[in-house]
Amino acid sequence: MSVRVRVPTPLRKYTQGADEVNAQGNNVKALVEDLEKNFPGIKERLCDESGKIRRFVNVYVNGDDIRFLQNLETNVKEGDNISIVPAIAGGR
Amino acid sequence: MNLDPGPMMATSTPKLRLIQSPSKEPKRAESVLDFIGDTPLLQIRRVAEGISPGVRIFAKLEGFNPGGSVKDRPALRMVQEGIRVGKLRPGKTILDSTSGNTGIALAMIGRVLGYPVELVVPANVSMERKKIIQAYAAKVTYSDPMEGSDGAIRECRKILEGNPDKYFKPDQYFNPMNPQAHYETTGPEIYRQTRGEVTHFIAGIGTGGTVMGAGRYFKEVNPNIKVIAVEPDDALHGLEGLKHMASSIVPGIYHEEEIDEKIPVSTDEAYSMVYRLSQEEGLLVGQSSGAALLAALKIARKLRSGTLVAIFPDFGDKYLSTNLWIGWRDRMAVGNLEFNI
């Protein structure tokens, strides 16, 4: 099962510039692992040492913040839209 | 205000003063814009515990500007110059891209001077910033949050190209009046407030206006004053208002060769500093202030004497809805506030 994941500019160096990539998995945790397999280094940017999503990274499943769903355990299904969005916008 | 450092021990308790000090008449003005600048310095004592007794750290509290941030200064200066050279005149609309504070400043100034304001803002700026801009009834276009502030810059350029005669674009990233505001006001204020004793000036890089402009002033009056820039240690960070230069559109006003040192700071450490400031100094500030103080402490630890001044760009009320305050009590718990200073 494959879903589309939108990637923000600061992480596109891992995806060879792609702003959208495919990932496999039944929940967000599995998606992150799959992203790491295909784009090594990306997991460390998304998750802290304890494996949780970093506080300044927001992950949305079909527009809903996973913090208000089941965090990394949030289920995903074919056709869902996943977005990784920096929690803040740099610059003034 | 009281600039007497008192006993030089960093651990000393500040002297209590009467709320109504007879020594100085509160400022009175005809326009809210007259309150821009002249912000106070606060000595950071408890959080700075452990540094050499000969080292003092001051925070310049830019949140006291009427628009709530340091950005009132360049916004006003850019608008004034636009009017002076005739680029901004009745019938024109002020347009710029911003991740928040400049937008708030322009929206406020536009209301006072009677110019409509349009802003391009990344959709992921804090809710409070959006609401404040809306409260000044500025028109806002939200740009793709995936593209950050660079996306807002590009979107803004498109709007301008579509209707160039309608707009005056201050263009804070390229307008020399942005650093000029700090050369004319922020730098001289700090020099006066420290009685010329400032040895290190520390400011985060958003557009680079503060560090460039005030830095230039300091180098003129005393080339020994160190000018230090603070930036996020990574392109993906949580320090609202600050730019990671290596991965951003580099502002035209930013000239790295003019600064003495650039200190990278991690988001988590800067956040912890924000918590310590609220708990230990009673000072609620934004993430970029935490980053500035963290950098100041890193420098202070290596010094035997010196007077450091760090720019605190704004207060913390604009960030209460952001991830900064999610789970902060757990992070404040004993043993969790470790600093790599």
3D architecture notes:
The complex is a heterodimer of chains A (92) and B (341). The model of chain A has no long low-confidence stretch (mean pLDDT 90). Chain A has one domain: Ubiquitin-like (UB roll), CATH 3.10.20.30. Chain A contains two helices and five strands; from the N terminus they run E-E-H-H-E-E-E. By secondary structure, chain A is α+β, with helices and mostly antiparallel strands. The radius of gyration of chain A is 12 Å and the shape is globular. Chain A has a five-stranded mixed sheet, with helices on one face. With 341 residues, chain B is α/β, with parallel strands linked by helices. Chain B folds into two domains: 32-65 and 186-332, Rossmann fold, CATH 3.40.50.1100; 72-168, Rossmann fold. In chain B, 33% of the residues lie in helices and 16% in strands. A six-stranded mixed sheet of chain B has the order 1-2-10-7-8-9. In chain B, helix 1 (72-84) packs across helix 2, helix 1 packs across helix 5 and helix 7 crosses helix 8. The chains are: A alpha+beta (92), B alpha/beta (341). Chain A binds chain B through residues 6-11, 19, 45, 48, 54-58, 67, 83, 85-92, and chain B through 71, 98-102, 121-122, 124-126, 145-153, 172-173, 206-207, 209, 232, 234-244, 247-248, 267-268, 271, 287, 322-324, 326-327.
Q: What structural class results from the helix and strand content of chain A? A: alpha+beta
Question: Which CATH architecture of chain A would you pick?
Answer: Roll
Q: Looking at the chains present, what oligomeric state does this protein adopt?
A: heterodimer
Number of helices of chain A: 2
**What's the alpha carbon Rg of chain A, rounded to whole Å?**
12 Å
CATH architecture tag of the largest domain in chain B: 3-Layer(aba) Sandwich
Q: Going across the major beta sheet of chain A, what is the strand order?
A: 2-1-5-3-4
Helix-residue proportion of chain B:
25-40%
What is the typical, i.e. mean, pLDDT of chain A? 90
- Most extensive interface: A-B, 24 and 48 residues
Number of E-type strands of chain B: 10
Secondary-structure element pattern of chain B, one letter each: EEHEHEHEHEHEHEEHHEH
